[in-house]
Amino acid sequence: xxxxxxxxxxxxxxxxxxxxxxxxxxxxxxxxxxxxxxxxxxxxxxxxxxxxxxxxxxxxxxxxxxxxxxxxxxxxxxxxxxxxxxxxxxxxxxxxxxxxxxxxxxxxxxxxxxxxxxxxxxxxxxxxxxxxxxxxxxxxxxxxxxxxxxxxxxxxxxxxxxxxxxxxxxxxxxxxxxxxxxxxxxxxxxxxxxxxxxxxxxxxxxxxxxxxxxxxxxxxxxxxxxxxxxxxxxxxxxxxxxxxxxxxxxxxxxxxxxxxxxxxxxxxxxxxxxxxxxxxxxxxxxxxxxxxxxxxxxxxxxxxxxxxxxxxxxxxxxxxxxxxxxxxxxxxxxxxxxxxxxxxxxxxxxxxxxxxxxxxxxxxxxxxxxxxxxxxxxxxxxxxxxxxxxxxxxxxxxxxxxxxxxxxxxxxxxxxxxxxxxxxxxxxxxxxxxxxxxxxxxxxxxxxxxxxxxxxxxxxxxxxxxxxxxxxxxxxxxxxxxxxxxxxxxxxxxxxxxxxxxxxxxxxxxxxxxxxxxxxxxxxxxxxxxxxxxxxxxxxxxxxxxxxxxxxxxxxxxxxxxxxxxxxxxxxxxxxxxxxxxxxxxxxxxxxxxxxxxxxxxxxxxxxxxxxxxxxxxxxxxxxxxxxxxxxxxxxxxxxxxxxxxxxxxxxxxxxxxxxxxxxxxxxxxxxxxxxxxxxxxxxxxxx
Length: 688
Fold this sequence. Notes:
Elements: H1 2-14, E1 19-23, E2 26-30, H2 32-37, H3 65-79, E3 81-89, E4 95-107, E5 110-119, H4 122-154, H5 158-176, E6 180-184, E7 190-193, H6 195-201, H7 205-208, H8 223-234, E8 239-246, E9 252-263, E10 269-278, H9 280-292, H10 303-312, E11 317-323, H11 326-333, H12 335-350, E12 357-363, E13 366-371, H13 377-393, E14 396-398, E15 401-403, E16 407-413, H14 418-432, E17 436-438, H15 444-464, E18 468-477, E19 483-492, E20 498-499, H16 501-510, H17 514-529, E21 536-540, H18 542-546, H19 548-561, E22 567-572, H20 580-592, E23 596-602, H21 609-614, E24 619-622, H22 624-627, H23 634-650, E25 653-656, H24 662-670, E26 675-676, E27 685-686
Parallel strand pairs: 16-17, 19-21, 21-22, 22-23, 23-24, 24-25, 25-26
Antiparallel strand pairs: 1-2, 1-5, 3-4, 4-5, 6-7, 6-10, 8-9, 9-10, 11-13, 11-16, 12-13, 14-15, 18-19, 18-26, 18-27, 19-20
Helix pairs in contact: 4-5, 11-12, 17-19
């Protein structure tokens, strides 16, 4: 039982999503992710707490947390599951918004609630906090309205007026802690300020009383605002407005202002009371959101805003717009001219903005139309055609230079991957040289991409499941008939099929997984041959030689397994091998620990006798494309003979690859080639 419980806890704690278990309204269990989210060091801190114990007193909608928590749990028990947003408050007083997925489960015959918690994006947090602030402001405004109603309804009775003034004083005390309060005479001269007024404005009471509110007036505020203010309060009405003020240091702050005329029993104004709430943080957050979602150059919404809008729009369609050869303009005329062209192009785009069509700058010279709602796909296509026609008709003038710009556009619709699919359609349009490409799952480029994605997954899984396999093929000494082996990489797919590097190698390089695969082969080869009295070869590419981590791993593993004396490092001939300084330094280091070195696939492509002279190698492996038809092609035979004679002069051994029949082997031996390798002798086999 204890072992099962330990296994359960191990599985439970390995889940990445924060999970809490609730029984009888109280927490009874939590995984490590939940404890991390709640900033708790142990499960004991959580047990027997009610959900409201990890919440502020009120939720974002103003409802008591304890009331709402009980209601949500009861609804979940009734309906089986429930999803809602919840404001959490941790023991260290951090508040943040989460999405809760509440579900009824049974464990050990006990009915419990499972609560999965998910963070909500930062912009959502800000919006929710703003809602809380606005809710508080609305509650305060309700207080103020009650004050005004009480005063006006009782103003004719002096006794009631006195009671109203007392009531006003009580309300003032209640608001004094969080609100900015001031009173002025009929001429607007300040007669009273509270401590909050001084704190926010930066002025002492002595600097404020006896002066008008002009002392905190921001010069950006138009005179019409103050005219409306005085007209309203002189008519014995309450004035409400958001005002932009300036503190003693000259810094701007914003207040939500309510100014109330105070009346005597004859309904004459005797003074004014102003209650303000500092909402600067709301403005700063709005500014932050604006900056986060706005492209600085064009002032269009940016990529982040597009991603956000795609999530929240109904039936969105997307067009990605790319200015052709814009890089040439930047290179020829400079970035400043390029920026001016982008600004002018933005004006073109804005002529197409409508109720259901938004415009974005994604990056560089790439823009986007996003249509939504009842804006049809063919309408978006026509809009894009109109934009192309506009660019064909008009030229952009910058510093006496005229620029004709052309566009390529990719469109996607009806998919949860609108942005990547529109980018694929754009790429396809460029490839086949058309103005507008529309995404389709049958596009060859998309099918290739899907295969590549699957192949990347297969490679990652093969690395994880130890399905990078070591195969080997024998190499025969043509004089002594002794054998050695060349190790070969293979990969086992999920369907158990074994594939060669021809299928996955280039993709592994693009996905940056190739070094991990090389390391696997190094490790498996050294471990397999360390206790065997036979030589073996390891294939290395120029990418391996350039990768310091790979080479360090190779040399450390060779020393660790004492395999340096029995290994031949086969460097695959490819572009870059002629840079003999880099390759030569590697060969020198390899030979210093006892390794032998071969150049693989010699005779085609990049073959150059000059660099072979400068590289101190032990073997030349003659490419199979030359060996395969050597028995029927005299020109090839002469080419191979030249390579063999060249190698003998330098004291380099030669190996013939792709020896597939006896006729080929006879020619190989007649030319004096030292070793043979191919299906005539041995098919590659899996070494375990």
